[in-house]
Amino acid sequence: MEKILLPTIIKLRGQCKGNISTQLERTEYKALYRLSEKDYCECFQIRVAKEKIFQNGKIIKTANFKEIYPKDESFGIWAWSGKEYKIRMIYEALADH
């Protein structure tokens, strides 16, 4: 069984489609990313889910676990976005366990 980590650079989908998110900091439990928009960041708690692959027209779960980037509906619950100074304060306050 393998744990697949989030990439350091992510091309976003959803409401931020077209933006690039670059990892600034992370621990085992939280991550901080900067969007390609100037002075705009996201932080979130690291979440893990079973990896899914598309094979023979079906979605199949593998034995691997994969860190997941928050979806639009995750923001305000376990992910936050906004100006960098505010998001850094939230990131620092997130528990590291």
Chain-averaged pLDDT: 90
What is the end-to-end distance?
A: 22 Å
Strand content range: over 45%
Number of E-type strands: 8
Specify the helix fraction band: 10-25%
Overall number of structural domains = 1
Rg over CA atoms: 14 Å
Shape: globular
Physical arrangement of strands within the biggest beta sheet: 2-3-4-5-8
Runs in which pLDDT lies below 50 for 5 or more consecutive residues are none
Order of helices and strands: EEEEEEEEH
Task: Report on the architecture of this protein.
10% of the residues lie in helices and 51% in strands. It contains one helix and eight strands; from the N terminus they run ββββββββα. Strands 2-3-4-5-8 form a five-stranded antiparallel beta sheet, with helices on one face. It has a three-stranded mixed beta sheet with strand order 1-7-6, with no helix packed on it. The longest helix is centred in the C-terminal third of the chain and has 10 residues, at 84-93.
Comma- or semicolon-separated keywords:
10% helix, 3-stranded mixed sheet, 97 residues, 5-stranded antiparallel sheet, mainly beta
Compose a concise summary of this entry.
With 97 residues, this protein is mainly β. The protein is built from one helix and eight strands; from the N terminus they run ββββββββα.
Sequence-ordered SSE layout with sheet pairings:
Layout: E1 3-4, E2 9-11, E3 20-26, E4 30-35, E5 40-45, E6 47-55, E7 58-68, E8 79-83, H1 84-93
Parallel strand pairs: 1-7
Antiparallel strand pairs: 2-3, 3-4, 4-5, 5-8, 6-7
